[in-house]
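=== Discrete structure encoding ===
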Amino acid sequence: MRAALPAGVTLSTDLHDWDGDNPYHRPFAEAADLVFVSGVRLGDRAAALAAGLAPRTVLVTGGEAGAVLYAPDAPSLAVPAAVPPAPVRDTNGAGDAFVAGVVAARRRGDALPDAVGYAARVAAAAITHDGMEYPPGLLPRP
């Protein structure tokens, strides 16, 4: 994968179900610059997994517990979950909304910590809607 990319292009992967051990996921993690992984299966092994993937940036999501950003040459950064702007209706797709929020914010030039904060707000907005199609005006402004 890496060899097929033009110079300067970054690659991210969402390995939401990786337990850190399954060898199927490792090549994807090692090819990416930014790795998203759920902390559900990792538990207290998340920091060790992130250290083992250095120099990649690893974002460990934890649902309502927020996320932890592990970036090279920086201390880990805990990012709290955002408060949903309305009652929670459906949490399906919250992780995907989070990933999309990070990618969108990075594409517009936001620094990674700011992009993660924005992603938390996107995920919080997404869970207030039933289903995967969001009505106009649902997502937070940058």
